[in-house]
Please model this.
Amino acid sequence: MAIASVNAPAQRRLGRVLCFYSGRGGVGKTLLCANLASLLAKRGHRVALVDLTLRLGSDLAAWLGLEPDPNFSDLLPVMDTIDPRTLESYLLPHENGLRLLAAPRSPDRWQRIKEGHVEKAVHLLRYSYNFVLIDLATSFDSRVLAVLPISYRIYTIATPDGAGLRNLGELVKLLRLLGYGSRTRLILNRFTGRELLNISEMEKVAGQPFDYMVPEIPQRQLELGGAGIDVSPRLVKGIMPIVEELLGTDPRASISLGRRIFPIIVGPNKIEAKGLDTTEEDIFGREFRQGLQALVHQRVIEQVGPQQLSRENGRGTRAHLEAQVIKVIDDVLAEKVGSKWSEQDQQTFRQEMVDEILGLGHLEVLLRDPEITEIMVNGCDQIYVERRGQLILTDKRFTNDSAVIKIIERIIAPLGRRIDESSPMVDARLPDGSRVNAIIPPLSLNGPMLTIRKFLDEVLSIDDLIGFGSLDEEMAEFLRQCVRARMNLVVSGGTGSGKTTLLNVLSSFIPADERIITIEDAAELRLRQPHVGRLEARPANIEGKGAVSIRDLLRNALRMRPDRIIIGEVRGPETIDMLQAMNTGHNGSMTTAHANSPKDLMSRLETMVMMGNMDLPLRAIREQIAAALDIVVHQGRFRDGSRKITEIAWIKGMEDDHIKLVPLFVFQPESNDLGGRAKGKFVQINKPAELYDELRQRVV
Model:
């Protein structure tokens, strides 16, 4: 019964699955499903209906005026060998051109239908039909769950009453939790405009805006016996925006009640392709440009196809897709602009459209800028960048918060991660290795926030850091000898101080004949040695399972025969495991930690060890730290954006129940020059003979 056994042409584009769902009966779900199917069929599309309501008899058959014979249960004897052509004979034809896979007549026959049967039947229908509409049960039965992963849209329906709206809010949360939030569209049915609650109040109860509103239909028009479809011009007009959205013929449709319907084919709140029939003097105007953008989106959907554009399906290379999109853009420019725009204007427009369709929109130009090291999006109307160490507000803007969330989802979708109200924070990385953090409402009060720390193409060396003024040659040589002597190091500092960059440089001093295991929350380290094993933590899946922490990886790394272990950052209970590893033969290991100074680092390490629920007295924890660590390198970020090593300290051991820190090198600031650059000098203030003797012995 495996889907892989279906023998069908591989090159054919599969039809779209549209599911209709509600948490209770009596909201008009079946009526909307049947009428949408009829309207799509009248547009010349092949449409199949599937009754999956799990009730006795077939509601859809009744609405269509058909006898449910044959029905779904008749497929079971031939399910193992059925193909799309055979399945056709089990569908009930309707005069409008659509076909129905009806529900069984008896409960025992329903019980014999399993999720695998449903999944295979729907999959086969997709080979023969442009649209497969499924009227779902009101509960999350396993057979319902079988079709949600392959659905293109999940239309969730409610009526404008308190109970229905509250029920809708719970359903939306559940669908998001299951990972289907981006496919869900809300329909408010039987809207009259005379409700006690206004639209905004109803949306507040539901928990999010409605995508469509369908007006109330007089009951006399809803009699059974073949009158269930096309029963009212009001109903047809109410459903028409859904049809237009699915067919891509009206990117911003709205119903007669004036409610805006959010288009899906080019993303929410895109501008419709109007304003193109304009005078020559308006051809550089904003309205014309927006209309041109919308037309490009529409043509790309028609000619390239949404499935091929999706990053999740992995079809084709970026270069191949880009060539297809550019051809569409050039055709639109030739048709609507001709020679009225300069070559430079056309190239700018071409690049903007490629970035928006295949990339991250406004962020792409920032990602291409080699001088930008970090991008910070604060809601839709603020995008900051760090350029040469300075924070700068750009003139880039997103249309709205939904556009920002769309970019976040585009980043995390290929990684199998999610972001929604139940999981409003996520860490990820771009294909080039750039680190990404995103957080959305309700945790982010001013809209979704996105931070991208760009991955440098060039791996910095110790000579680069000396050239930047981050340290001097004497300090560099001391650190080189510490690494070669297999001393355990911690790089401390604040956020954005360059800890990971410094750790990467220090790791370059490790001899090439040693086996190194790196452990990171998000992979950033790039070691050049030949014998390196890279491990990366994994967050939980949508069911809250499958998480693998830094601590789990560290424990596993001890079984991998490492000479050294490098941990990207310690921030929690994994600290005790790291200290124990350093104390049990894995000398020369390194890590980073957030702290304001080497002294503050000692307190932070004590706290993080306690987070591991280890019932150890404070003195025992301090003894572990003093025995495991040798050198602390503290990195600071100055107001001019420069990063410097402000202190190198030696952990001498315990003294009067406290960890004894001996500062070796410090940066002594003097003043800022006229350009605002931090000035000062590096000074060695201590040169303990005991430490240097140990260094010489270990190196030998």
Observations:
- DSSP finds 23 helices and 23 strands in the chain.
